[in-house]
Design a protein that fits this description.
single chain; about 475 residues; alpha/beta; 2 domains; 23 helices; about 50% helix; globular; electron transport; FTHF_cligase-like_sf; LUD_dom
């Protein structure tokens, strides 16, 4: 079975390991700074960029407000175009549907277009358990798969690897899964790309079944759209006899004209390109052109839970461009795997808790994986207010009724709140603090469970006289 994020530690422990890896930090820093520099230059070209952001956010909000209607329209249009629509409430159901569809073809090896959703639901492992080999075709996803690794970025899953590491993976693993790496392969990017091309060409020509995701689904016509940089997606979408697209229910846009807004923004935000080299669209099936059988699997897997959250639902606007990751100071220092999900960075810090609910200890730690600097707010092409959602989720952690939240912190805050609500008790506590403060040595570390606070902060000096006492003494309590 392929490696998964199942059982991943909470963010603080995972981040502690990640920041100690100097090579990882170098790889991530170099990649994110390169991408965000290219993005900034191309965004600057567009005097209407802020208008595009407004339009993109408004369109997504309209879709989310009428999602049931748009999804029914998608089903109607896809069916009319010769496709078959399936509905999956969660990962298990989605995996069962896709496994059954592949089994029905009799094939035991399929090819895949890079898809975060299929990573989210663990499709590769589900297919492997059923005796079906699913081979990734995107270069970065291939690197992750061959290296039995985990993705660290939504656009560039192998961003945490440098080219020497990639060369070693190709030499060691390619021959075990098909055409081996060429003799004498170096870490030259052109040679690495050619080795991957030759290895994957064999897969493309043999595969009868392909699995894809989709960046967008146009409700008006039932058209799906995949945006990519290498052409591997188009090979999968055109050469296979059967195409199975596994798509989150939030990926809908109302019309072709609305799609235009996002296509002007996605490549700029994701890879610093004016337009993606390959933008492929398909609607159902066409005799003699492309796959003869098309299945669309629409997946919820927590999305309606996120939709029901008034503050958090804006996370479903996300178009998976990765701009928030490339600008985030926390992501730059920890890399993506520390987040314990295929959705890392600021979007992962809000999306994972919204999708999975409040009772998972790993996801409960993610809203704290942020400095709240707000840089992610500024670069998001669909105007997600990350900091607002993070603060709301932190409040859920501290004050909510979930089974797995910071119970000690919650109890402490409840006790402090009770004292603050009781005037005489609060005044007595303030007077006592002034007395105790004089005896507290500078630089003291707090004891027990409170030590985490002073691990990264200096305990402030506690004044002998409170503000209330000073005010009463100097103003006579007349104002």
């Amino acid at each position: 079975m392929s490696k998964t994020f199942m059982g991943w530690p909470a963010f603080p422990r995972a981040a502690e390991t990640a920041v100690a890896d100097e090579q990882l930090r170098t790889n991530v820093r170099r990649a994110t700074r390169t991408i965000r520099g290219k993005r900034a230059a191309l965004v600057e070209e567009r005097p209407d960029w802020q208008d595009l952001r407004d339009a993109a956010a408004a369109l997504k909000d309209d879709v989310l407000a009428h999602l049931d209607t748009y999804l029914e329209q998608v089903e109607e249009r896809v069916t009319a175009a010769g496709g078959t629509v399936h509905w999956a409430v969660d990962a298990d159901e989605a995996n069962r549907i896709v496994t059954r569809l592949v089994r029905d073809t009799g094939e035991t090896e399929i090819v895949k277009v890079k898809s975060m959703l299929t990573e989210e639901i663990g499709l590769d492992n589900a297919l492997e358990a059923a005796g079906i080999s699913a081979r990734e075709t995107d270069l970065a996803a291939t690197i992750v798969q061959l290296g039995d690794d985990l993705p660290s970025h939504v656009v560039v899953p192998a961003l945490h690897r440098n080219r020497s590491e990639i060369r070693d993976i190709f030499v060691r693993e390619m021959g075990r899964h098909g055409r081996p790496a060429p003799e004498g392969l170096t870490d030259d990017p052109g040679e690495l790309a050619e080795a991957a091309r030759l290895h994957m060409r064999e897969k493309f020509l043999k595969a009868k079944v392909a699995v894809s995701g989709a960046n967008f689904v146009v409700a008006e016509t039932g058209t799906l759209c995949v945006v990519e940089s290498e052409g591997n997606g188009r090979m999968c979408l055109t050469l296979a006899d059967t195409l199975i697209s596994v798509v989150g229910i939030e990926k809908v846009v109302p019309t072709w004209r609305d799609l235009e807004v996002y296509l002007q923004m996605l490549a700029r935000s994701a890879t610093g390109e004016r337009m993606a080299p390959y933008t492929s669209t398909w609607t159902g099936t066409t005799d003699g052109d492309g796959p003869g059988t098309f299945h669309l699997v629409l997946v919820d897997n927590g999305r309606t839970r996120a939709l029901a959250d008034p503050a958090g639902r804006q996370a479903l606007r996300c178009i998976r461009c990765g701009a928030c990751m490339n600008i985030c100071p926390v992501y730059e220092r920890t890399g993506g795997q520390a987040y314990g999900s295929v959705y890392p960075g600021p979007i992962g810090a809000i999306l994972n808790p919204l999708l999975k609910g409040p009772d998972d200890p790993q996801t409960a730690s993610l809203p704290y994986a942020s400095s709240l600097c707000g840089a992610c707010n500024e670069v998001c092409p669909v105007r997600i207010r990350f900091t607002d959602v993070l603060l709301k989720l932190r409040s859920d952690v501290a004050e909510g009724d979930a089974k797995v939240k910071h119970r000690a912190e919650k109890a402490a805050l409840k006790a402090v709140g009770a004292v603050m609500d009781h005037g005489p008790l609060w005044n007595a506590a303030v007077r006592a603090a002034g007395t105790v403060g004089a005896a507290v040595p500078k630089g003291m570390k707090l004891p027990g469970p409170l030590h985490g606070w002073t691990d990264s902060r200096a305990l402030p000096d506690i004044p002998k006289e409170s503000f209330r006492a000073w005010w009463k003494r100097t103003e006579g309590g007349t104002k």
